[in-house]
Automatic annotation (TrEMBL):
Pfam families referenced in this protein's UniProt entry, alphabetically: GNAT_like, Hydrolase_6, Hydrolase_like
Domain (GCN5-related N-acetyltransferase-like) ranges: 285-330
Protein name (Swiss-Prot/TrEMBL): Haloacid dehalogenase
Length: 337
């Protein structure tokens, strides 16, 4: 499997009709704005690009997410938010008929989504639920996880809103829903199905709801946002304002590689040149160059680093790996653009 950076001769905002935008690390960081995010999204909207904010968070209602974005100068309606809770409910309905019983282990957003799908929320494994829907909520405890384990061990279908092992907070990374799901899996030996990224379920639902023809995923995490984009066949833009770094992109395996890379959301408003091969194994982009020689990544030493050297480094490293040549991770520096 090969995956290369794509070229866009026109700004991405005009080349696509819908942007599926991740939240934390892209539109905001915790409760703080990310520089250039609000202005860039406003400019993209003014140019005709529709936005849907897609989040693996299943604990919050779409209205709450929209309110937070609006307070950060990104005016958003609840219909422009797609949560993992909504995707989880949609996945449940692929096997369950209306009226089926579901034990919800999670927050209010997941309860609302499951009920809105015509399913009946129950509170105990003793209610013999047909399925367990599990999502993150900060007040979940041992008794909640135990109830889920009892139900799953009794034959209930286990569906997780997402399998994110970590959750970014203002103080650092805390255990995410994947860590909590792992406790139930350890107790039962049953691996759950998952509705959240990197499954492309949410992306497909959002695209169908919007009737879009040329969607674009915008995310900061290669293992969720961009992996989901690639598995769903949707172009993905990796912005360097969140979890995954430029160095991570250079070292990414094919299934996690982005189609485009940008420093921040201003990348929506810019064309994206594609690196091209040159002499002696160099790959050039925007006057910057990189190559892999004897298993080590080399960068030209002229000019500031910037995003073009990241693109060149991605092209050089990916080409080497796809040709069966190893790249020493120690040779890849921090390429903060």
């Amino acid at each position: 499997m090969t995956a290369r950076l794509r070229e866009s001769a026109t700004p991405l905002a005009s080349a696509h009709d819908l942007a599926l935008v991740d939240l934390d690390g892209v539109a905001y960081k915790g409760h703080l704005p990310i520089p250039h995010a609000a202005a860039s999204l406003a400019a993209a909207r003014d140019g005709g690009l529709r936005l849907v904010f897609v989040t693996n968070n299943a604990s919050r209602e779409p209205e709450d997410v929209a309110g937070q974005l609006t307070a950060l100068d990104i005016p958003t309606g609840a219909d422009e938010v797609m949560t993992a809770a909504q995707a989880c409910a949609a996945l449940l309905r692929t096997r369950l008929e209306p009226g089926a019983r579901v034990l919800v282990v999670g927050g209010a957003g997941l309860v609302t989504a499951v009920e809105s799908a015509g399913l009946v929320v129950v509170g105990s494994a003793d209610d013999r639920p047909d399925a367990v829907a599990q999502g993150y909520a900060p007040d979940l405890g041992w008794s909640d996880l135990a109830e889920a384990a009892y139900a799953v061990a009794g034959g209930a279908w286990h569906v997780a809103s997402n399998l994110d092992r970590s959750l970014p907070t203002a103080r650092g990374f805390a255990p995410g829903n994947g860590a909590l799901v792992g406790a139930v899996t350890a107790a039962t030996g049953v691996r759950p199905d998952s509705a959240g990224k990197p499954s492309p379920t949410m992306y497909r639902l959002a695209v169908e709801r919007a009737g879009a023809q040329r969607p674009l995923v915008v995310g900061d995490r290669l293992d969720t946002d961009l992996a989901g984009a690639r598995s769903g066949g949707i172009p993905g833009l990796h912005v360097l304002t969140g979890v995954s770094s430029a160095r991570d992109a250079v070292l990414a395996e094919p299934g996690l590689r982005p189609d485009f890379v940008g420093a921040d959301l201003r990348a929506l408003l810019e064309p994206h040149p594609v690196p091209v091969p040159a002499d002696d194994g160099w790959w050039e982009c925007g006057g910057r160059a990189a190559r892999v020689a004897d298993g080590r990544l080399e960068l030209d030493r002229h000019g500031p680093r910037g995003i073009d050297v990241v693109r060149a480094a991605c092209a050089a490293a990916w080409d080497a790996v796809d040709a069966g040549r190893a790249v020493d991770p120690q040779s890849v520096p921090d390429l903060g653009a």
